[in-house]
Amino acid sequence: MSAAAATPADAVARLRRASRVLVTGHLNPDGDSLGSQLALAELAEAFGVEVALIDHDPAPANLAELPGIDRIEVRSTLPEGFAERFDLGAVLECSALDRCGFPEIARIPLLDIDHHRGNEGYGEICYVDEDAPAAGEMVLRMFQAAGIEPSERAAMNMYVALTTDTGDFRYSNATPRAFRAAAALVAAGACPEQVAEWVHERRTASSVRLLGEALQTLTLGCHGQVATLAVERGAFERTGAMPQDTDGIIDVPRTIAGVQAVLLLKEREQGVIRVSLRSKGTIDVAALAARHGGGGHTNAAGCTVSADLASVRQMMTTELIEMVEQTATRAGIQMAENKT
């Protein structure tokens, strides 16, 4: 079945046919990945399906209180004999299968649930919806297709997914569809006040120190429209922070007046740089990330580049500035055409 043909009902039907499902999400999980995995697990169990949740990387500290988060096992490889144990793998928020960190999962049938552009269609069933505001909202549609009311726990997790991926309903994906989903989840028991506290008021002291180090590297270019900052390996050592403590750093320079795009570089190990990109309006950072083997959404994307930090910063900053300038030029041309 093609990605275009798969519907929430198709995904539900495949989940119902499973006996034992392995649920996973992308590397360095965020609120949408974690919240949608946990909610999907509850839906599967409502069908009597046995569920195991396994992620390659741990949850960030500010999401450590999600209902059921302790169910997610963190490991670098899938357990021996998994292909005999599980008859379905549910992979959430991964446009390409390698995004989950478990290439061996391809040995079992897969249910691909994703809302990113350019999904490679690696599943037996590909429930892919680029218009969805979050994968959590797609899982909500599965609950609705199944005629099952989400539990309060599932509603909380899907609300976390929705609010984090829409930037607290500030990003361009904060569509009427997103607000309808939010209303349904609150009606099912989600508490926006509690979710806001979990997401924004659970930072560790080391993550705040890491933020301080990152902000020391802040530069502005393209007449103040492009902000860049970096977290080198030494910053993790000095602050005692973990890689997941970089979550939220990129959002700070995005609030600077006039900034249209932000580039954050994270040096995990020598010669391996994780690149995060954010933008406003029609600046398509997903296209930039795709040039370097990554992907994402128009206004939020990322990739990994193998080179030294200084070289990657220069290259990506140059390319991002060019993109901002080209977008501005196109907008100017369109405005001129509209006036004629």
Plain-language structure description:
This protein is an alpha/beta fold. It has 2 domains: 193 residues, inorganic pyrophosphatase (n-terminal core) (Alpha-Beta Complex), CATH 3.90.1640.10; 135 residues, Diaminopimelate Epimerase, Chain A, domain 1 (Roll), CATH 3.10.310. It contains 11 helices and 12 strands. A 6-stranded parallel beta sheet has the order 3-2-1-4-5-6, with helices on one face. The radius of gyration is 20 Å and the shape is globular. The N and C termini lie far apart (47 Å). The model has no long low-confidence stretch (mean pLDDT 94).
Number of helical elements: 11
Percent of residues in beta strands?
A: 15-25%
pLDDT averaged residue by residue:
94
- CATH C-level label of the largest domain: Alpha Beta
Return the string of H and E elements: HEHEEHEEEHHHHHEEHEEHEEH
Set down the secondary structure blueprint.
Layout: H1 8-17, E1 20-24, H2 31-46, E2 50-55, E3 72-74, H3 82-85, E4 88-92, E5 110-114, E6 125-128, H4 135-146, H5 152-165, H6 176-187, H7 192-200, H8 205-215, E7 219-221, E8 226-231, H9 233-239, E9 261-269, E10 272-279, H10 285-291, E11 295-297, E12 300-305, H11 309-339
Parallel strand pairs: 1-2, 1-4, 2-3, 4-5, 5-6, 8-9
Antiparallel strand pairs: 7-8, 9-10, 10-12, 11-12
Helix pairs in contact: 1-4, 2-4, 2-5, 4-5, 5-6, 5-7, 8-9
